[in-house]
From TrEMBL:
Subcellular location(s) per record: Cell surface
NCBIfam families tied to this protein: IV_pilin_GFxxxE
Protein name: Prepilin-type cleavage/methylation N-terminal domain protein
Keywords: Competence
Stored Pfam families: N_methyl (PF07963)
Coiled-coil region: none
Lyase found in the keyword field: no
Entries under InterPro entries matching the protein: N_methyl_site, Pilin-like
GO biological process, one term: establishment of competence for transformation
SUPFAM superfamilies, A to Z: Pili subunits (SSF54523)
Keyword flag rRNA-binding: no
Length: 83
């Protein structure tokens, strides 16, 4: 008879989530968010790197054109603070 009462109790409480289920779900969501943010950070690093390469290439091409037009040597100066 006691088993029957427990079964009825489980049916009445089955409409919601248990604390354990909610914590597991929260953990999975946080884990996915962390993985996503790490991938975004890596993507941003790649973008910064490729932007620097593109900036150098454009500067080199511009300096090359200026050297030909002016028939002079041209120097490209990059510093840490040049943005």
């Amino acid at each position: 008879m006691r088993l029957i009462k427990m079964a009825k109790l489980d049916k009445s409480n089955s409409k919601g989530f248990t604390l354990l289920e909610a914590l597991i779900t929260l953990f999975i969501v946080c884990l996915l968010a962390t993985v996503g943010s790490l991938q975004l950070k890596e993507y941003r690093t790649q973008l910064v790197f490729y932007a620097a390469i593109e900036k150098f290439r454009n500067s080199f091409e511009r300096a090359s054109r200026m050297a030909v037009l002016k028939n002079q040597n041209v120097c490209i100066d990059y510093s840490e603070y040049d943005r």
